[in-house]
Specification:
alpha/beta, Rossmann fold, two-stranded antiparallel sheet, 9 strands, globular, methyltransferase activity
Length: 207
Amino acid sequence: MGGPADAIIGLYRRHGLAWAADRAAGPFVEAAWLARFVALLRPGGSVLDIGCGAGAPIGVMLTAAGFAVTGIDTSAPLLALARARLPAATWIEADMRELALGRRFDGLIAWDSFFHLAQHDQRTMFARFSAHAQLSAPLIFTSGPAHGEAIGCLRGEPLFHASLDPEEYRALLADAGFEVLAHTANDAGCGGRSVWLARHSGETGPG
């Protein structure tokens, strides 16, 4: 504990409102990927947004499309915004590394959140994804393009990011019962993000 990854929670608690304002002012670059994700959901299905922030634009889009949204985040200021914006949704203050809601969802999202975890914590998340996914549920998340760490900036403070190698992600997904449907590294149409779209097959690998 005490490393740069562990500073993430405090950063988003201190600067969450400023981050939300920046997010609202920026482009909705994930729209095309989210459309692909939504196309895999059953009508009116349940979606777990892991690292939901203030519930916009992703929660807003999903709710408007008729899906039941549950969001988790560690930032109370961001969750307060989400509750005010979408009171019919469910908002839970929780650390994704300890995710254990005791239910399964029709879709899972970890957009611009999962990549803030240290590499060892990322590896353990795939079992948690699987434990919260219905059969055939899509999972979408962002990562880095290759194994390594990077430090960004949030309101003048260092912002940690990490990634595994794409082949390790593929192996972890397979072991957790997910089939990779699409993966694009450094997608120019999505702000340079590396995006994964998978679907829970229920068939776990030998690991």
